[in-house]
Specification:
Number of helices of chain C: 11
Mean pLDDT of chain C: 86
Distance between the termini of chain B: 48 Å
Shape of chain B: elongated
CATH topology of the largest domain in chain C: Rossmann fold
Helix content of chain C: 40-55%
Number of strands of chain B: 6
Largest sheet of chain B: 6 strands, parallel
Low-confidence stretches of chain C: 15-34
Order of helices and strands of chain B: HHHEHEHEHHEHEEHH
Oligomer: heterotrimer
CATH topology of the largest domain in chain B: Rossmann fold
Strand content of chain B: 5-15%
Strand order of the largest sheet of chain C: 11-10-9-12-13-14
Strand order of the largest sheet of chain B: 3-2-1-4-5-6
Radius of gyration of chain C: 33 Å
CATH architecture of the largest domain in chain B: 3-Layer(aba) Sandwich
Largest interface: A-C, 63 and 88 residues
CATH architecture of the largest domain in chain C: 3-Layer(aba) Sandwich
CATH superfamily of the largest domain in chain B: MTH777-like
Number of strands of chain C: 14
Shape of chain C: elongated
Mean pLDDT of chain B: 89
Low-confidence stretches of chain B: none
Structural class of chain B: alpha/beta
Number of domains of chain C: 3
Largest sheet of chain C: 6 strands, parallel
Chains: A mainly alpha, B alpha/beta, C alpha/beta
Order of helices and strands of chain C: HEEEEEEEEHHEHEHEHEHEHEHHH
Number of domains of chain B: 2
Radius of gyration of chain B: 23 Å
CATH class of the largest domain in chain C: Alpha Beta
Chain lengths: 224, 302, 406
Amino acid sequence: MKRQIPMLILSAVGTLLVVSVFIPSARHWQEDASLYFDIIAVFAFFLGGGNLIRVHTEKVNRKSTGWIYSVVTLLGFGIMLVTGLFKIGNPNGIAGDLSQTGSYFQLLFQYVMSPLNSTMYALLAFYVASASYRAFRAKNTEATILLVAAFVILLGRTALGVLLTNWIPAQLSVLQIPNLAIWIMNAPNLAGQRAIMIGISLGVISMSLRLLLGIERSYLGGDN
Amino acid sequence: MGLIISAVVIGGGLLWILYLSIKGQDVDRRIVYLFVGATVALAIIFRLEFGEVATPIVKSVFDKIENLPAGSKIVLSYDFDPAMAPEVNPMANAFIRHILEKKHRLFFMSLWATGQSLLSVSLNDVLKPEFPDAKYGVDYCNLGYKAGNEGVLNVVITNFRKMFPSDANGNSLDSLPMFKDVESLKDMDLLISVGGGKPGVKEWVLFAGDPGKIATAGGSAAVSTPLLYPYWPRQLIGLLGGTKGAAEYEAELIKTHPRFKDKGMPALRMMGPQTMAHVVIIAFIVIGNVAYFRSRRKGKQS
Amino acid sequence: MLALLRIAKLVVFISSSLFVISLLPTHSVHSQDASPSGSNLGPITVRAHDTDNDAGGSVTVEWDDPGYEKMSGFAGFLIWRTNTLTGTSDSVEVTPFGTHSYDDRSVSDDSTYSYLVAALVNSERVMSAPSMQVRSAKQWFDSRLTWVLILGLIICGAVIYFIESAKRGTKLFLRRIAGLEAIDEAVGRATEMGRPILFVAGIQDMDDVQTIAGLTILGSIARTVAEYDTKINMPVRASLVMTAARETIKHAYVTAGRPDAYNDDMVHYVTDEQFGFVAAVDGIMVRERPAACFFLGAFFAESLIMAETGNSIGAIQVAGTAMPAQLPFFVAACDYTLIGEELFAASAYLSGEPRQLGSLKGADVGKAIAMIVILVGVIATTIASAWNSESMLWIENLLRKMFSTG
């Protein structure tokens, strides 16, 4: 029963939503279902938030390895929650907009969270360099073609690409590095991506059908 | 001068690493990180900048905004978070400058919760100081963030007021003069989405631009841009891809409206470090291949 | 009675038309047979019909322009609507240059309407004759999606056929997927080294099919983990995923006969913030140094950060995602990568159950259709544009119609 009811709900709702694609007056069911899911997810946040507090409080109490990080986590969680919930420092008080200029929440967002997020994103620059150094080796023909394409793209995305091939006449402008880079992204790269996307779509159909027919059940915590 | 110093320092270091690779020593990943960091730092310190020329895919967006009659209605949606902001915020700010310079009406909104706060930053840092004569409710307005992803677009394509009864400041849309002839997105002359995730440019094309036959343009993070090329030029009139796209747009903006030359165009400034970083990455790829071929030859000999 | 009703309707219709004409302002008004002075253009012909493939409440008005748009001083077409039941009339829209149709979405399905279109030239309005009366209605099927339905039924039918075929005992060939074969090896390695395994089921919520695919693979991995008595650490970004993952792992431990070894804290919520989550995952990797990392689900920009950190600690990494933009990063940084549909095939592959394997075969029929259509389409389009071949153009248009939803 514990697994039958969720499977029944999934099959019924899934079938209804597939059918709604073809019925004009029922298309809004998809947005409605999406909204219902968002509402359920918001309630589930209490579970997640509670779990976060419990796990880290235990780590602090037991002084496990890295318990200082748990203190930082709990402090960050508490400060953002309190400043946001009670709109502390908000020029219009508790009735003001959450992210109003001057509110502590907006200040924390702008001067703490934004730079931290940007820092994590900036790590990609370093990781791309180390991944490229390790992965772009001319081991075989395909790898060599990939290597050449990578060079063209890397140069094409900068002013250096323009400088290096500016001398090429307009009739052969396709050989200029920036144009070549756009062609590589627009033609062979896009063809490959589209092929992968077609495969993915068919894989989603196959998986969705297995879910709707109840053949796939392991995500419910059961055997298939 | 800065370029010469950077080239000497970085070039010298790379040659030394190449020499070590030829001798058979592996390059620790931390050396790679150090070089990338140093290259970017030197480029920023010496303010290395290179000229940019707008490619057709960027120029088409610029020309569209440039050629629209004054008073045209343009939606600018902030669909990104702080992580993407360094890459796409310059695009958004360039759009603000261009649109208000051409005296169009600018409707701000956001499909991302974090976009709302980033929008406020742009309003305070760019719009209000550089366009003090722009009136809220007449020249621009801020509709704020609405949850629902593409569901929001499904509603506003037929009725703005159903989804946005009031703007981000609590004003009813009917009280804003710029909304007097606006019922839905179909009354807009151009839709622009700036972002790199979901919902983003693709959702604006699929749920607003294409079904509503409204001209749509996009600004996207570099990693998401290839997935949007299929939509150009039919469903997307143009696309700014990553920092390069933003820099090309800024260059075109300065060329056509020179008053923005001294306004600090961040994308153009960032292209200097990006160019240098790309050169370093290419150098490391070459060094890696040298080391690889050398170890392969050694293996064959033994 | 019926006759009286018909007469009443006619009276309302005539009076509303006269009412419309009387409302026209002090500018000179011409009948449909006259034109602005100096021109001899014919009348504007107006057709109104229920908008196709909609949910009701919309009428499409179309008109032919005999040449007013080309006249200097042309300002647009004004559309008038009359509700023939109530007799009220109002202007609906002024359409710009080049537009000869308009969808009036502010009508009611309970009323009938009639439309007039007036060309605005200088200070004059050239009215058309009123259109036939029209009532909007909802359609129960969007005919533009007929081909989508047909193709969908073919693919679904193929899937169901092969599932049934597999149930009857037909042996189905499945190619080897290296990433899935490596799972046991990865878990075994972690057990030998006495280090945990890290599992990340993507960063999306349970409404993403990739997350569900990740959780189905988690079930298989958790069974192996339970049998080998290895530790598993699964940070999650969404609370609903946390509850689902706990159920999956708990069941795996119970099935393996080790219910006492299960602990709820194996799956723990971190944060909804994308880069906050990846910072936490990186921290776990650097501190706990898992011997095997599994990244199976939907990922965005954080994919390379996690994969490179895993590579730096020397973990064996198996990744799988259906996000084309992230695949190159995983391929570059991980030992094994499940590309796109391989992620969705994983649960079938690992279970080996005939019904699930049959569904994979059905998807292959879809791929075959795609390949044939692409080949035919490319040949037809090339020949049509090079040699203006009518038959090839017909094929091209047919394919466009089949695969377009608008």
